[in-house]
Design a protein that fits this description.
With about 220 residues, the protein is α/β, with parallel strands linked by helices. The chain has helices at about 1-15, 35-40, 55-65, 135-145, 145-150, 185-200, and strands spanning about 15, 20-25, 50, 70-75, 85-90, 90-95, 100-105, 110, 125, 155-160, 165-170, 175-180, 205-210, 220. The longest helix is centred in the last third of the chain and has 18 residues, at about 185-200.
Length: about 220
């Protein structure tokens, strides 16, 4: 019992070292190691050489999780006194560029731009409201999870009546999706039209491709 108490006292009194920050997932750093360390220090008043028993880890985690670039954070101290912070960043899937500029993340939520890194994601233009991102998010999520769309779509445009348009790389025509109903069918129709026109070398013959109608692709020639 004496040895256990002695070991516990020594462990509690062990000094905490400089924070070790680990980023989980993608390597694109929207928030830097230095910024995370500063957040930890600001919320503890200086972490280096502070006894472990005085740390309030939940408070530190809450401070990190309140940062708009961080999805989840886990803070813990190892037996040798090293303070660790495991950080999972938020993932942007589209960038809104209207009267305001911000990202939409992979959960359909507002995410501010980062001064540290700019994500290569489709641009969103037109009429977009921060509190009503549902339609744009559905399209952006579809693009992110579809190899053809991810390769070819560079812009999503939403008009005031919520009609969705897409712009494709190296194509002059505008794709009119309409609303987000029957999205899979519309995208399959677009792929079929694109591959046929690419084979026939007629992609430049059109200025609009309308996918709003069931089982039809209505094209307007340039």
């Amino acid at each position: 019992m004496f040895l256990y108490a002695f070991a516990s006292d020594r462990n509690a009194a062990r000094k905490v070292s400089k924070p070790v920050v680990t980023f989980i997932g993608e390597n694109n750093l929207f928030i830097t190691n230095e910024t995370v360390s500063k957040l930890l220090i600001q919320n503890r008043g200086g972490l280096k050489n502070v006894a472990k028993e005085t740390l309030v880890l939940n408070k530190l985690e809450n401070a990190l999780n309140s940062n708009p670039m961080i999805k989840t954070a886990e803070v813990y101290v190892t037996v040798n006194g090293t303070l660790n912070a495991d950080i999972e960043q938020r993932t942007p899937i589209a960038r809104v560029s209207t009267n305001a500029s911000y990202y939409i993340d992979d959960e359909g939520l507002f995410m501010p731009l980062s001064t540290n890194y700019s994500a290569r994601v489709p641009l969103v233009t037109g009429f977009v409201e921060k509190n009503n991102l549902k339609n744009v998010y559905k399209i952006a999520s579809k693009i992110r999870n579809d190899a053809f769309l991810e390769k070819n779509v560079f812009e999503i445009h939403q008009s005031t009546d919520r009609t969705i348009y897409l712009k494709l790389r190296q194509c002059k025509f505008l794709v009119q999706l309409g609303d987000v109903t029957n999205l899979d069918k519309k995208i399959n129709n677009l792929k079929a039209f694109y591959q046929k026109s690419l084979k026939e070398k007629t992609l430049d013959d059109y200025n609009k491709v309308n996918l709003q109608f069931d089982n039809q692709v209505v094209c307007t020639k340039a």
